[in-house]
Amino acid sequence: MNQNIDSAIRSHMTEETVACDICSKAFSQKAQLGRHMKTHTGEKSFSCDLCGKTFRQKVNLNGHIKNHTGEKNFRCDVCGKAFSLKPTLNKHMKIHSGEKDFHCDRCGKAFSRKVHLDSHIKIHTGEKSFRCDLCGKAFSRNETLNKHTKIHTGEKSFWCDHCCKTFTSSGQLNHHMRIHTAQKPFGCGVCGTSFSCKRSVETHMKIHTE
């Protein structure tokens, strides 16, 4: 009796699940398998109309578009910084918690994200595999190359919803937004005066050290 039940269950699972031919991972739907296969093929069929960046899944494209529109629904309870994606907020929270799980084998420096460790290691190796086609300058990170390229193209794909001013990076937009929100997350450890950017704090500190 039990053997018949087990046989029926295995038969049902075979009919209802589909497996990847490359890594044997199983899925309950063919659509899920199709999305998974793109991790092996590298296919990125969802493209951003604003900057041309491509993605394997539409959900990733939707999250990316928020970088252009400035939509940020996930806010840090500690410093107030906002993000367009919850996973990005979760990674940011490690800055406040001090959690650093990724360590450099060469110098012992620790990082909260593996991508930061990978970039750091290139300091030791001197590897700069991302080169600008326009001026030949090389960089250790593709992200840095992309920011550099905008110097040549003049591209400003991040805009402010309040005044429509445009910027070349999300960091510049975030800094600008503090003008409208009056947000001042950087405080002086001596007198408590707050500022909208870190550079202003550093300039202010000279008052106390002189």
Write the layout of secondary structure elements.
Elements: H1 2-16, E1 18-19, E2 26-27, H2 30-41, E3 46-47, E4 54-55, H3 58-69, E5 74-75, E6 82-83, H4 86-97, E7 102-103, E8 110-111, H5 114-125, E9 130-131, E10 138-139, H6 142-153, E11 158-159, E12 166-167, H7 170-181, E13 186-187, E14 194-195, H8 198-209
Antiparallel strand pairs: 1-2, 3-4, 5-6, 7-8, 9-10, 11-12, 13-14
Protein name: Si:ch211-271g18.3
Function: May be involved in transcriptional regulation.
Pfam families: zf-C2H2 (PF00096), zf-C2H2_4 (PF13894)
Keywords, please?
210 residues; alpha+beta; Double Stranded RNA Binding Domain; two-stranded antiparallel sheet; 8 helices; 47% helix; globular
Short characterization:
By secondary structure, the protein is of the alpha+beta class. It has helices at residues 2-16, 30-41, 58-69, 86-97, 114-125, 142-153, 170-181, 198-209, and strands at residues 18-19, 26-27, 46-47, 54-55, 74-75, 82-83, 102-103, 110-111, 130-131, 138-139, 158-159, 166-167, 186-187, 194-195.
What's the total helix number? 8
Number of strands: 14
Q: Low-confidence parts lasting 5 or more residues at pLDDT below 50? A: 5-15
Order of helices and strands: HEEHEEHEEHEEHEEHEEHEEH
Percent of residues in beta strands? Answer: 5-15%
Q: Going across the major beta sheet, what is the strand order?
A: 1-2
Structural class given helices, strands, pairing? alpha+beta
Fraction in helix: 40-55%
CA-based gyration radius: 24 Å
GO cellular component, one term: transcription regulator complex
GO molecular function: DNA-binding transcription factor activity, RNA polymerase II-specific; RNA polymerase II cis-regulatory region sequence-specific DNA binding; zinc ion binding
Subcellular location: Nucleus
Domain C2H2-type: 18-45, 46-73, 74-101, 102-129, 130-157, 158-185, 186-210
